[in-house]
Amino acid sequence: MRADLHIHSRFSDGGRWPADIARLAAAAGLEAVCLTDHDTFGGCAELAAAAGPLGLACWPAVEMDCEDEGLGYRSELLAYFPGGSYGRCAAMLAASRAERAVRVEAMFSRASKLFSAPGLSFGRWVEERLAGRGPGSPAVDAGALRFAKTDLFLALKRAGRVSASVDYREFKKAYFDTGLFSDLRFAKPSLEAVAEAVSADGGVLVVPHVGHEFDDSLAAMRAGTKRLDALLSRFKDLGVDGVELYYYRNKDRDAINALVAERCRRFGFFHTYGSDCHGPDSNKNGLGSFYGDFPGF
Fold it and tell me: What's the pTM?
């Protein structure tokens, strides 16, 4: 199947609602898609309802935050649930989202003073996140939305307190990396906790964009094959089944994926394919531009 199994919607940090994504994916010639929003299954049912009539295969999926101090890994794992059951993971992520919302609301309150923006309100931002649903679309519970530091950045841009020319990396370096919000840092579950929950639900674990651990640099990855093998070995021990081949946004994409595939062979991983599409208003708008021949779970 022409499959793209790494896509984000407005339930996390994407720019489109799931039904729109299904229509765009079918128009782009894809045959299988997965919505992998950060820490939420909120859009999976909507995607499935829209994908079926379009002839698209899809499975419930999510991208879960996690970390491993020993390996210095602070990133995510993709989890897919072809059996359709994900109750334990859903409960874990619901608690995480609620905790995140409290912290992001505190960030908004602090930023309203730092940026002299008394009108900056987390409540208003939640309303904006929920806006734009098409006629007849089911209502969305705000608790199903996943909030992050990027929400504050985007809200400040909309309020005119951050220049439109500033990108998130610049903003993060100036405000989040300087300690102004350090007491509001998000906690991430361990790799072991995520692997245990996904296994209990009968899910399939996949490592996304492993090249990010090497700054998406082919040279750094070649020089760091010892670390890459250590990561892959650790993932295998935890029951991870696959490693994603990814739409790296540089000239070395094919070479990076070839190197990843070569290192993965010795561990017996299978591969998924992901564009990590976030929608037309982002720099990650690759739906239909990167996919692979996926045989299914």
Answer: 0.96
Beta carbons within 10 angstroms of residue 108's beta carbon:
20
- List strands edge to edge, sheet with 242-246: 61-68, 73-80, 204-207, 242-246, 270-274
Residue 271 near residue 6, CB atoms below 8 Å: no
Class of domain 2-97+191-293: alpha beta
The tens digit of pLDDT for each residue in 30-89 reads: 999 999 999 999 999 999 999 999 999 999 999 999 999 988 999 999 999 999 999 999
Instruction: List the chain domain ranges.
Output: 2-97+191-293
Helix (H) or strand (E) holding 4: strand 2-7
Sheet with 32-35, strands from edge to edge, namely 57-58, 32-35, 2-7, 292-293
Given a contact cutoff of 8 angstroms between Cβ atoms, the answer to whether 77 and 194 are in contact is yes
Instruction: For residues 157 and 161, give the distance between their C-alpha atoms in angstroms, rounded to a whole number.
Output: 6
